[in-house]
Amino acid sequence: MNQIDPGTPTWLAARNDRTAFRLLLEHGPLTRSKLGALSGLSKPTATQMITRLERVGLIHPVGEVSGGRGPNAVSYGVRVDRITGVAISIVAGAIQAVVVDAIDGDHPIVEIEAASSGRTPEGDVRAAVGAACEAAGLDRSSVSRVVIGVQAAFSVDGDELSLTDTLPGWPAVGARERIEAALGLAATIDNDVNLAAMAERAVGAAQDAASFALFWIGDGLGVGVDLGGVVHRGASGSAGEIGYLGVPRAAAELAPEANDLTDLLGGPAVARLLGAAGRPLATALPRLAEDDVALASLADRVALAVHPLLAILDPAMIVLGGPTGTAGGARLAALVAERIDPADHPRVVVRTSGTGVQPVLLGARQQLVEQIRDQLEADISLAG
Fold this sequence. Notes:
The protein is α/β, with parallel strands linked by helices. It has 3 domains: 9-79, Orthogonal Bundle (Arc Repressor Mutant, subunit A); 84-195 and 360-376, 2-Layer Sandwich (Nucleotidyltransferase, domain 5), CATH 3.30.420; 205-354, Nucleotidyltransferase, domain 5. The chain contains 12 helices and 15 strands. It has helices at 9-27, 32-39, 43-55, 121-136, 175-183, 192-203, 261-265, 267-273, 281-284, 292-313, 322-338, 359-383; strands spanning 30-31, 59-65, 73-78, 84-91, 94-100, 110-113, 143-150, 153-155, 160-162, 186-191, 211-217, 221-227, 230-232, 317-321, 349-352. The strands form 4 sheets. It has a 5-stranded mixed beta sheet, sandwiched between helices. Strands 13-12-11-14-15 form a 5-stranded mixed beta sheet, with helices on both faces. Helix 1 (9-27) crosses helix 3 (43-55), helix 2 packs across helix 3 and helix 4 crosses helix 5 (175-183). It is globular, with a radius of gyration of 24 Å.
């Protein structure tokens, strides 16, 4: 990036242009007059900012606004075709993906079957990007980056994956490097529950929490730990892999056959609680909210599982997410809260996830929006 000396006219112009660009991202299309009013700068300066941003291809005219007397004013908006990304969530047997642009516009979410054999990280991502772009009617050439949520632990420093049961064909080391080399895309890989925790902090139940633990309950278990707005990943990226934790003695009365917390709360265990032993969890969960006996039994198990989180992390909030946590709703959260001793944890609250049905993709989207905007803002400095 070119170095611009602070205080020079070029530096001031780049600073003003970044301000204008952020206002257009925040407010949507604006006229010169409105941009000047929002930025606190004069209309001539706003005109100069728009001219420079249009020249480097970051904005373009998108319509006209009637101002009463005189000609209509042209409104300008951020170009969404300059740089895009694709958010990807890889689950057992399937890949979900969606195109992401600078204004976080709505694009169709697609789901494709993962290849039955011969899978590779670059092959999975190539298929996801192609399907997402086709659904959005977008040229693949505008995609510059991807954020990928995986059901595994990922170490950023070593480009290392572990606990990769749902990623056949993905190597233990070098998956990100292979994706970037084969596809020419900047790639970010992260644990799916960590991405869901980011979404929870941004738009979900934990927006105002000082700290929280997102307890993901589905076919498998996981925890996303947010400490003051920062996700804690651990030294090797495997923080939060709670499903492998052995059950406490108190669990013997609830599930004598359980050896670890996945045995206690994973998909097969919850299906049995709902009288659907051997059936997929997704087919059993719709009845959970109306089954008081199953809810009470599930709350007993969840309370046992979150006890280590409370003892070690002492978070301000526990958020119940994943398919089972979401299906249990506010009633499950209330029952779990009743089972937490207020003498030991007087300040913790328990909530249900508020991020909807695609929290992993939502977290990946938010990361991509930030990355795309940073990349576009870098063009302003380069133009200066």
